[in-house]
Amino acid sequence: MKRLFLMIVAIAWVGLSTCPAYAEETKTEASKTEQSQKNEVADSLKTPKEPKADNVGSAQGVASVAAEKQSREVTTKETMIATIVLVSLALVVSLLLFWLVWRKLNHQLSRVYGKMNEMKTNLKYNVQKIEDLQTRISSCEKKVEALHSELGALKNDLSRLISEMQAQPVAEEIAAPPVYQVKTWYGMYESSRNGFSVKYITTDKETTSQFIIYQTSETSAEFAIIETISNDLFSGAKEACEVLDGDPMNFIKISVERKGQLMLEGNTWKVTEPVQIRLY
């Protein structure tokens, strides 16, 4: 398009530059022709023969007609040249305006096409997002339906269990066993034929006490040996103990691993399980 525009401008420039020269050349030729005709008329008048008056008048009339005709032809040529120049200029201006308008329209169309492509891309992206959302919504709806089904099944199971529980007879309440308050006693043991028995039990802690007794019921109790007992005191109670580690004849401290068990037989507490100890 740029090449075509340049060619049109060049043609118009050549036409504009050539037309004045052609007009000037035409004017020169017309003036030369008119001058030659005048010279011929003058030569004919200078001849020795005296022409008649009507011949002289006719010659002058012919010369004036020829000059007028020549001037008309020159004027016509000049008018044609001016018309061609104006038409060429109008054509050049029209082509220039057309090129400018076409260029602007092309630029606008390019922008419109760019926006259309961008809108198409955004539309495709939005459509994809909508499809993804629809897929997620469908998945959520399926999950909700599954949960409704599970809840319905659980509701039915719960209703059945409630009905079964209501149909069962009410069981009699079982009396809770009595709770005995743990009592802490102190006591000495003595040997007997039926094992070991508590010689006496007191609630007062004495220096000669060897065992701490914890009553757990009316007929049972737990006991533990005092950790600070001496060798002499331990010698009278060692048969009620199970020594796990250490020398019974040489120790300074007793550690209780497990309490022993006492059982009330008549009025006497008997050892059923010895206390387990370690000697240090």
Task: Write a structural description.
The structure is a single chain. The protein is of the alpha+beta class. The protein has two domains: about 120 residues; about 100 residues, no CATH class. It is built from three helices and nine strands. It has a six-stranded antiparallel sheet, with no helix packed on it. A hairpin with a 2-residue loop joins β7 and β8. The protein is rod-shaped and about 190 Å long. The two termini are about 115 Å apart.
Query: What overall form do the CA principal axes indicate?
Result: rod-shaped
DSSP, total strands: 9
The average pLDDT is 74
The main β sheet shows up as:
6 strands, antiparallel
Distance separating the two termini = 116 Å
| Rg calc | 72 Å
The DSSP helix count reads 3
As a percent range, the share of strand residues is 15-25%
What structural class results from the helix and strand content? alpha+beta
Spell out the helices and strands N to C. HHEEEEHEEEEE
Runs in which pLDDT lies below 50 for 5 or more consecutive residues are 47-53
Tell me the helix content. 55-70%
Q: What is the total domain count?
A: 2
- Strand arrangement, major sheet: 2-1-3-4-7-8
